[in-house]
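[agent] plan:
  1. take the single chain provided in the ticket
  2. run structure prediction with default settings
  3. attach C-alpha cells to the ticket
  4. add a short note for the reviewer (M.T.)
[agent] executing step 1
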Amino acid sequence: MITEEEILQKIEDTWVVLKQYRAQYFKQKPFEDELLTFLLNAYQEDPQLMVNLFWKYFDSPKSISNSPESKKAPYVVYLFSAIVEYPDPLSIEMACQLLVHSDSSYDEDSARFLYDAKDPVAVPYLIEALKSDDYGVVREAALALGNIGDSRAEPHLLEIVEMYDNDEVYSDDRIDDAYPIIRYNTFIALCLLNTPAAQDKILQSIYYDRDRDIQERAIRHLVSEMPIEAVPYLEELSTQGDEHISNMARQYLKKLEPH
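[agent] step 2 finished; step 3 output follows
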C-alpha cells in the first residue's frame, strides 16, 4: 500500500533532479512524466490519501524534513496535477472547494478542470467564482458553466454580458482591457448553454453588437446550430452596409446552398 512518505519522497527526489536541469525542458520532461505516472498510480491506489495530502500542504505548506531541498519541493503543484488528470467525485469536490477557498492560487486551473468534468455539482461554485476579481477566473468559470449546460447559470451569464455592454468598457482609453475579454468569453458560454434566453441574446447580437467578435460568434453559432433557420438572417445581413459582415453572410450562404 502506498504511503504518504513514499509520495512525498518521490516528489522531493524529482524536484532535486529538475533543479539540476533548470530551464532545460527536454531534460526535465522525462522526470516530470515519470513523477506524474507515479502519482496517477498512487491516486488510483488511494485517492483519499492523495487528496488529504494535497490539503495538508495547501492549507499549511511545510517541509517534511530539515533539508533545504525539501523546503522548496512543490508538493501541492504535482499533487494537484495528478488529482485533476481525470474527473471523479473526489477530484471534482476538491476543485469546487478550491474555487471558494480564500487562497485563490488554483481558481483558474480548477475552473478549467470543471469545464472538462461537466458535472452539475460544480454549478454553484462556478457561479460564485464569477464574482472573482481575477478576470481569468471569471472567464474560465463562465466557459465551464456554459459547457456544463445547466440552466441555473443562465441569469448570471446574461448579467455579465449586459453589465459590460457600455461605452466605458469599449472606449479607446478603457480603464481595464479585461472587461471586453470577460464579456466575449461569457457570450461564448451563452452559446454553449444555448437555453431559450441565451438564444434570444444570440439572435439579438446577430444584427449588431458593439463587439464585432461577439456579432461574428453569434452568426457562426446560428449557422452551426440552426443552418436552415440561418438562411433568412444571412440573406438580410448580406445586404447590410457593414462590408465585413455582409461578406461573411454571403460566404455562409454559399456554403449552405444545396448542391
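[agent] step 4 note for reviewer: Residues 63-72 have pLDDT under 50 and may be disordered.
[agent] ticket updated
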